[in-house]
Amino acid sequence: MRIAREAAELARTVRDKAVADGSVDTKSTETDVVTAGDRAVERLVRERLAELRPGESVLGEEEGGEGALDGLRWVVDPIDGTVNYLYGFPWYSVSLAAQVDGRSVAGAVVEPASGRVWSAAAGHGAYLDGRRLRVSAAGRLDLALIGTGFSYSVQRRSAQAAVVSRLMSQVRDIRRAGVASLDLCAVAAGWLDGVFEVGLNRWDWAAGALIAAEAGAELRLPAPGSADGLGDEMLVCAAPGIAKELTEALLRADAGSV
């Protein structure tokens, strides 16, 4: 939490300079941006971890890291929601998690614009600024508010849009804010009843998924060889009362095809 707070403050203070200087590059496509802020924040996190937890592995969105899941590894998304960050839309985060053998055991997600701190430790609950979190009591999918996200790949985005179109008639409504970590935190707080997305990376969900799970959400993480029909890259997180119904609805919408 201490490192994530410091990183969030850096992200906030460097944003105006990074945008004013034109320090914006692209990654997978022209719409997939990375700013000087992303790089500076990840460097700060790595430096602080090296001081406080010397010799431990780090996986980050900008600088990569070791691929093996064995042992303890820190997972950082320096700015989740970089397009929002670029535009000044105040819904983005710094996400940091500790994983052991590929499973999250501690995580913090900090919103630089508001200063809110989401946190969890395995077996110890989930919190927002010290207030214990609990998922919603939703029991019907047709009355559920569901979050999702879209890929930067035009082909995949089109397929995802088709799934959302087929799902729309089965839920109360759908939200798309562009920040997977905060979508998962929103499920933890009961602000969303569920969320699903295809194609997330480990740094997108490592902290947020733990926060949601510790708040009582049922979680389906991306995993190679998944046999439930949703595909290897699908994440589903929902209040227990709608988790099964949401999964079945996604199967009907052919979510695995994206």
Automatic annotation (TrEMBL):
Mg(2+) binds at residues 61, 77, 79-80, 204. One of its GO terms (biological process) is inositol metabolic process. This is Inositol-1-monophosphatase. Its EC number is 3.1.3.25. GO terms for molecular function: inositol monophosphate 1-phosphatase activity; metal ion binding. CDD domains: IMPase. It is an enzyme of class 3 (hydrolase). Belongs to the inositol monophosphatase superfamily. It catalyses: a myo-inositol phosphate + H2O = myo-inositol + phosphate. Its cofactor is Mg(2+). Keywords: Hydrolase, Magnesium, Metal-binding.
